[in-house]
Amino acid sequence: MEYIKSHEEHEVSPLTISTNHNAWPSKILKKLLDGHEVGEETFCIHQDNGLEFFADYQAWDDGSDYLLSKIKRDKKLVKIVSLNSRKIADKLINVVRKTQREDISQWSNNKIANFFKNTYKLGNDLCAYGFVPVISDHFFHKFTHLLKGVVKEKSKNIKLKMSDPEAVFLLSSHNKFVPSKSARIKLLNIINKWNQKTREKLKYKQIKNHFDDWYWVDFGQLGPGQKFSEFLAGANNLFNNRSKLIKELDELKKSPNIIGEKQTKLKSLLKLSKEEKYLFAVAAEFMYLKGLRMEVLFGMCAAWSKVLEEVSKRLNVDKKLLYYTSVKEIVGALNGDKKINKKLLKERSRFCVWVAKTENDQDIYAGKAARNFLKTLKFRKDKKMEKVLVIHGTVASLGYAKGKVKIVNKLSEINKVEAGDILVSVATHPGLLPAMRKAAGFVTDAGGITSHAAIVAREMKKPCIIGAKIATKILKDGNLVELDTKRGNIKLL
Length: 493
Hints:
This protein has helices at residues 14-21, 27-32, 57-73, 75-100, 109-137, 142-154, 164-171, 179-192, 200-214, 228-239, 242-270, 274-315, 319-322, 327-334, 342-350, 367-375, 433-438, 452-460, 471-474, and strands spanning 2-10, 43-47, 50-56, 352-356, 362-366, 378-379, 390-392, 394-397, 400-407, 422-425, 441-444, 464-466, 480-484, 489-492. The chain is of the alpha/beta class and 493 residues long. Among the domains are: 2-141 and 289-379, no CATH class; 390-492, Phosphohistidine domain (Glucose Oxidase, domain 1), CATH 3.50.30. The longest helix is centred in the middle third of the chain and has 42 residues, at 274-315.
């Protein structure tokens, strides 16, 4: 077995990523792939609130090929994945909202244990179904290459007003509302109905209820998320700028129809066949499901954060250290089966490796044991890179930008970003939002067109190129670059 690093992420923890990581060897995913295994013995290296994810190169490569062939021949597959993803997401959202409104200090140890078991199962199943979109395109970008090939062939004798990457971006865009968009529309509708006579008590109640329903959409894995006082202040600012509110609300409500009309015209112009239209419809649905899964998992992490506050008190273990436990260890400690080993957790917090065995089980190595374990494995080495002047990636949001590079992965690095800079990251996360608001555009090594960077870029209407793979290796702070989303290029100037 030859491993390859297929993903890197920051501001995460072994506990919060466990529902995701342990979905790779799940029975659900194996069944969807008709027994093909892509997640056997996958492992994560955890260090400094970041992770590197490694998978079997050949198994993932073969699994991706098999999945694309099944997508083409079995129309039921996407329906099954979509239906189950939505059902599980709804259940998990309901649990998150209920937890926000309850007094956790009144819960019994057994109720807390059941809460973790239930939410873990829902999150794990959501990821198992959600990995069908991931396998189709992550790392190898096979689905994207397939779609680019279709557009390239169909546009040979047609003068398009857009480049092939722009056409693929439009045709694979979804016109549904992910949770964060639904939350924004509901908030704008609430405030739009206020007037000068609306009582402050009513305003407060409406905004508090809305906050409790949706506070989690940009929580990330480790938070801390937005405070209610900040959220309330933002709502009042919107009320005081009614013209801006109405414009945003109008744009959000019209956006699905606008996207649909543009797609219909382009499909007609390219004369796409029924099968080709189906492939782009699948891509669009996968985009939506990826965004849905990401934000719902943020909700699970937000609920876990709240409950972990109480667990920390009862077990007398620092909350930060609890993020290096597994759900099984937390449940066992709450049930009195086995105490949490604080010394071991401290060792894990410095350096550890988690190997996914099944949906619920993992081998965990810490410190020296982790390093010894890694020495037993074979890794596929990256190709040597010569001098690179142009880096290519996938277009995630259209536009043009030129500015100085700022490499940002951690919260401690966000202050170096100034207005007009190009934020370059392995993969962005909610903690980087302050820096993303300042930046003129974004580039990421990893992620698909529904990654955090892609979603934020479209909301902020800033150019974004994702899946560039080597951007953080080639580019340095201060480099002047140009983002060309017509071609998906990052050019060193």
